[in-house]
């Protein structure tokens, strides 16, 4: 899937096809969401238990592919198109996918009526709160 190149002391991943890479990152981010200090075997077990339909609904392959475009570089190497990702960009990609996952989960909660949201011009950001459904009853 990908190979490592230690040129310039920065780990570089080189791959011909990004599909499996994107799917692996999605699985890791989805399975490890909200958990800290996971051992590799614990994360592997969580990845095995993923509900694919739930993952697809929460963070799609297409979203991750679009996010990856910001961090990956396309190069022609030995007459083949390869995709190059530095370790710094890899870390940023993981963080961006995680941020998108959080955004998607919050949006879903707002859509379901479990959270309310509004724009706060002083904070220059959205704010969220749990609705009090008893008001106005």
Task: Please explain how this structure is put together.
The protein is an alpha+beta fold. It has one domain. 46% of the residues lie in helices and 22% in strands. The protein has five helices and six strands; from the N terminus they run E-E-H-H-H-H-E-E-H-E-E. It has a four-stranded antiparallel β-sheet with strand order 1-2-4-3. The protein has a two-stranded antiparallel ribbon with strand order 5-6.
Q: How much helix is in the residues?
A: 40-55%
Strand content: 15-25%
User: How many beta-strand segments?
Assistant: 6
How many separate helices? 5
Distance between the termini: 58 Å
Low-confidence stretches: none
Gross geometry? globular
Specify the biggest β-sheet.
4 strands, antiparallel
Oligomeric status of the shown chains? Answer: single chain
The ordered H/E elements are: EEHHHHEEHEE
How many domains make up the coordinates?
1
Helix-strand blueprint:
Elements: E1 2-5, E2 12-15, H1 19-31, H2 40-48, H3 52-58, H4 61-69, E3 73-77, E4 80-86, H5 87-111, E5 116-120, E6 125-129
Antiparallel strand pairs: 1-2, 2-4, 3-4, 5-6
Helix pairs in contact: 1-2, 1-4, 1-5, 4-5
Quick structural summary:
By secondary structure, this protein is α+β, with helices and mostly antiparallel strands.
